[in-house]
Amino acid sequence: MKQSVFLGTLAATTLFAGMALAQGTSTLDTVKARGELNCGVNTGLVGFAAPDASGNWQGFDVALCKAVAGAIFGDASKVVYIPTTSSDRFEQLTSGKIDFLIRNTTWTFSRDTDLNMDFVGVNYYDGQGFMVRKDLGVSSAKELNGATICIQTGTTTELNLADYFKANNMTYTAVPIETNAEGEQQYLAGACDAYTTDASGLAATRAAFADPENHIILPEIISKEPLGPAVRHGDSAWGDVIRWTMNALVAAEEFGITSANIEELATSSQNPEIQRLLGTSDNLGAMIGLDADWAKNAIKASGNYGEIFAATIGESTPIGLARGLNAQWTQGGLLYTPPFR
Fold first, then answer.
1. Where does this protein have coiled-coil stretches (predicted)?
2. What share of the chain is helix, strand, coil (3-state, %, to 5)?
């Protein structure tokens, strides 16, 4: 759905969400009654969440929005994409303006406990890095003493940056930015020597440059950044819907279920876990308020986790990310989903 759609409906949906929260209506019931999902995404990060030339949102995080809509409605298009900044994303969630947040957001202690949010999993394991222009002549972050560094406010990167420079007895001057688009503009204009954010975000930002070959991402990764979707604290039933939809995409890759063979496997597979996942035996959907084929519809939205990764941010895309930690547990990565039973 185009970005412009949310502008005309945001006031009404915000009022609807606020009334529902006040009356104790479940988020799933609210979303079903509204007829569409309000998904909080990035303001624009190519590969993760950004509108294309036609205004249609695409990307790795967007695919989870589509999967959740598919699970609930059997129609992946029933999503309103609501751009959120690093500073307003949490208020958008806690106030009910969005149903869940999937915006390159790091799961941390304080966010999970102090900001009235519940993270329901990790969809991308990341870490903070640095990008510089090749002609700066820098090959290590430890050569950035005295540098000016563009950094988004309201993010975990601020504290990580301060800690890293302090630990290495270095100084820096921060150039605060609000959005990735502003960071890209400031960096390219020479307002800062380096840009720091999640390494995946740096790769996505560089891919959008006219001359990506003239910019390098330094080898140091200075933090753990487990990125994942979040729901409002205490909204556990809705959290189950998001968590198990994401798990379904991961499990589908593990079991070899793809967008090309899913219909065949739904009728022919003798694997009990595939049968449960695709709704041909038992009825796991009923346990979370969804139809029996909820997971099948979620997977059909954009494919399994591996297909989504390859199509949006993988090595064959301009972003060029390797699976690394985001490979299946059977392939040396950290992706591991609990059993569907």
1. none
2. 45, 20, 35
Angstrom distance (rounded) from CA 205 to CA 180 = 8
Could you list the residue range(s) of the whole structural domain that residue 210 is in? 128-223
Residue labelled with tokens 């941390």: 108
Token pair of 42 as six digits: 């990035």
Query: How many angstroms separate the CA atoms of 96 and 31, rounded?
Result: 11
CA-closest candidate to residue 266, choices 286, 292, 287: 292
Lookup result for tokens 């006040």: 22
The three-state secondary structure class of 106 is strand
CA distance 227 to 104: 6
341 occurs within a structural domain: no
- Per-residue pLDDT tens digits for 210-230: 999 999 999 999 999 999 999
For residue 216, the 8-state DSSP code is E
pLDDT tens digits for range 58-77: 999 999 999 999 999 999 99
